[in-house]
Amino acid sequence: MYRLVPITAEDRPWLEELRRVVYHDLFVATWGSWDEDRHVRHFNECWERGDISAIELDGVRVGMIQLFEQPDAIELREIQIHPSYQNRGIGTLLLRDTVSRAHSHHKKVSLSTGLQNHSAVRLYERLGFVHVAQTETHYHMRSEPEGA
Question: Is pTM, for the whole model, over 0.85?
Answer without folding.
Answer: yes
